[in-house]
Design goal:
Low-confidence stretches: 1-43
Radius of gyration: 43 Å
Distance between the termini: 97 Å
Shape: elongated
Structural class: alpha+beta
Strand content: 5-15%
Number of strands: 12
Mean pLDDT: 78
Strand order of the largest sheet: 8-7-6-5-9
Length: 550
Amino acid sequence: MPMLTRRRAGLASLVFAIGLIPVTLPAAAQEPQPAAAQAAPASQEDPLRRETPRGAFLGFVEASQRGDRATAADYLQWPRQKMPIDREEAADHLRFILNHGFEGNLDRLSRDPGGIINDGLPPDRDRAGTAVLSNGERVDIHLTRVVQSTGPALWMISADTVSDIPRMYEHAGLPKVERRLPRFLTSASFGEMPLWVPIALLAAVPVLYFVSRLVLWAIIEFVRMVLRFRGHRGPIRRSREWLALSRPSAFLLTLGLHRLLSPMVGIPLLHRQYYSRTVTVLLIGGIVWWLWRAVDLVAERMRDRLKPDHPRTAQSVYVLGRRLLKGVVAAIALLAGLAAFGVNLTATLAGLGIGGVALAFASQRTLENVFGGIFVLSDRSIVVGDVCQIGKYTGEVVDVGLRSMQLRTVNRTVVYVPNGTLATMEVENLSRRDKFLFQHIVGLRYETTLEQVGRVQGEIRAMLAGDARIEQDTHRVRLVRFGSYSLDIDVFAYVKAADLPSFLAVQEELLLHIMSIVKSAGADLAFPSQTMYVKTDPQSPAVIPFEAPE
């Protein structure tokens, strides 16, 4: 194994060893021991904590694990039929059965004195888990609630489970690995565990980490082979994604393999619970690590995409987006961890919901502007340098931030448009035009003859047809109406210009040419005028034409 791989494996072993500290501590040092003299009277609280299913089963496991057989026997509901063993021996045999083949989660046992109601069992019974025997048989371990004449109702390991202990003990056995080990490893203890258990758990970490790296290497080689077959030649191992995600992926794969192999070790039940908690915490931490690296990759891609168009905004979007996504990941991981340890999240989620609603109302406009800015930036509908018409304002975009957009108008003033408003408005981006519309009405005087009108139309058509800057498929020159004081000819064409200044130059040239065409045809452009009729004599009315500008 290379030196760098050994260092990573050593670091993973150290992290796992720290997580296993609760496993090596005695049970008495980790859980508060019940005391008969407590704040509440003895008639109201059981000194053995048997008021709930979790307290009863966990109390039995703790007492039997530390070798207190007499106390452990108090958690058993002794059956009425005669048993071949006594109470303490039955408690010792049940401890052996649970340590060498039990499936269940102690954190998911009910903390309610009434137990779990909707589990399909009678109201006074709960299932603690399942004992898996060496012959493959699976036997449920039940708890029952015993009502006393005085004091609270107590939960105890049910009589039918206790009566089945001799048979289960006969078929229970050590794990196959433990049977082949030297006796000094199985007989010696460390933290109330066989010595070989913590040694095996810690020794497996670097081995499994090396296996995980080997598996990831094989996967990458397969992906690279597929990409080469499709013509892709880029490096995969030196890519940004591989460098960011390889270590957390190997860490998660190591945890998964370690968890799969742990049943072969035969961890005692109480320590198995601590091991499960340690693996759960490390697994959640590894998932958060992997997701945070993925968030960094997404944020970097967003920053690289925005940088050419929004150099001043790219970094702020990167920081805000990364922190926001990482906060969401951390919150979800925290809730998942609490749920894994059996914490009821109903009240927590209700509180978070109320707080979130209050925060949303308090910062509604701010959040609206921030998310509006993110949408505008992600859509790339407006970039710095575009000329846009937003509402009654037309100008050049000088900056697009997370809160507002800055628009410099033709009057050289700066208008700040909130992004929340911008996201709901109709924005006309004048810079995205692929061509410019040239459309003008040429008004000829009514004195213009039919021949002159036709000549003007023909020469304008020829001018447009001979200009390479005019789109040839769409231009037209038509007499469209008899106006109030002119014959209106509509000149319609698209000019292929790169920008507005270029279009204005072409438009000026075309308008001057049209004026020259009208003059050369002997016609003239009309101007607003009116005709006045004056009646002087009813017998012989005289018509005096009069024209006056409006």
